[in-house]
């Protein structure tokens, strides 16, 4: 199966090379173009068993980007390896792990007081309004306005209402 694929690929490349060599006539000229027939395999010829690597090495290099293999860097000599290991051990490296913080109820309580601007709902904003916490209600409605552009008119009206309440000073501002 692999030999058939290799043969097909080789014949395709040969055909492409021959087509590239054919000169096309100018616009005013007419000429007959003869496309050569692919050579039929001879029945008495034995197929050569060749490894894939050998086949690749015998293939001509394509100018469209296939470059010759870059020379490999010489492998470090055993002396360099041992010297490198000895230098590493002489430095006595150590892996330091950060110490985990223990649970602190006071820190958890402080974190619970802070409100996240990311988390906002219409219900939470209305609760802030009922409590008189207009600053937090304003932030919540502004976040909702950005998250739900389809309700822009409603949230804009609520934000304007909160702005009017804040100007009149009818509620506590935090």
Can you characterise this structure?
It is a single chain. Among the domains are: 2-58, no CATH class; 115-168, no CATH class. It is built from seven helices and no strands. The chain has helices at 2-21, 52-58, 78-90, 105-113, 122-131, 134-147, 152-168. Helix 5 (122-131) runs antiparallel to helix 6 and helix 6 runs antiparallel to helix 7. The N and C termini lie far apart (79 Å).
Structural topology:
Blueprint: H1 2-21, H2 52-58, H3 78-90, H4 105-113, H5 122-131, H6 134-147, H7 152-168
Considering the chains and any ligands shown, give keywords for the structure:
single chain, 174 residues, mainly alpha, 7 helices, 0% strand, elongated
Question: What can be said about this structure in brief?
Answer:
The protein is mostly helical and 174 residues long. Helix content is 52%, strand content 0%. It has helices at 2-21, 52-58, 78-90, 105-113, 122-131, 134-147, 152-168.
Query: What is the overall pLDDT average?
Result: 76
Overall radius of gyration? 39 Å
Number of strands: 0
Helix content: 40-55%
Low-confidence stretches: none
- SS summary, helix count: 7
Structural class: mainly alpha
Tell me about the largest β-sheet: none
Strand content: under 5%
Q: CA-to-CA gap between the ends?
A: 79 Å
Sum up the overall morphology in one term: elongated
Q: Give the H and E element order.
A: HHHHHHH
What is the subunit arrangement here? single chain
């Amino acid at each position: 199966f692999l030999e058939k694929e290799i043969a097909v690929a080789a014949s395709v490349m040969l055909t492409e090379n021959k087509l590239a060599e054919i000169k096309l006539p100018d616009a005013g000229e007419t000429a007959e173009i003869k496309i050569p027939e692919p050579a039929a395999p001879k029945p008495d010829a034995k197929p050569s068993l060749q490894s894939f690597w050998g086949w690749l090495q015998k293939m001509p290099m394509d100018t469209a980007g296939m470059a010759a293999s870059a020379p490999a860097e010489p492998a470090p000599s055993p002396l360099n390896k041992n010297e490198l290991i000895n230098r590493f051990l002489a430095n006595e490296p150590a892996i330091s792990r950060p110490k985990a913080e223990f649970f602190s109820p006071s820190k958890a309580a402080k974190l619970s007081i802070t409100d996240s601007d990311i988390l906002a709902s219409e219900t939470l904003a209305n609760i802030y309004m009922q409590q008189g916490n207009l600053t937090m209600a304003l932030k919540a409605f502004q976040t909702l306005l950005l998250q739900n552009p389809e309700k822009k008119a409603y949230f804009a009206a609520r934000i304007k209402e909160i702005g009017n309440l804040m100007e009149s000073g009818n509620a506590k501002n935090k």
